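Milestone M4 deliverable, item 7.
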Amino acid sequence: MNEASIRLTLKPSVAEMVRQVVESGEYGTWDDIVADALLEWRLRRELNSAEGEALCRLWDEGLTSGPGRFNGIDEIKREARRRWTDERSRSTG
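Output delivered:
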């Protein structure tokens, strides 16, 4: 495996947090933390791209489907609150 060496400079508060996490055993090394953070960053970038494409597709579908059934934002909010209340009562009941 080819590895590249990159030097990172962390703010003191972040460096202290990383040191504590390694000392606690949650991570084995600083490298493990950086690798995990970069994986999260990469996945978030990929998801954001996919989510953006899905949102554009849904927007287009909405426009081509014709007028909505609600007559404004207040009606949409009422419906959302009704659904939220119904869902809560089903999950607690």
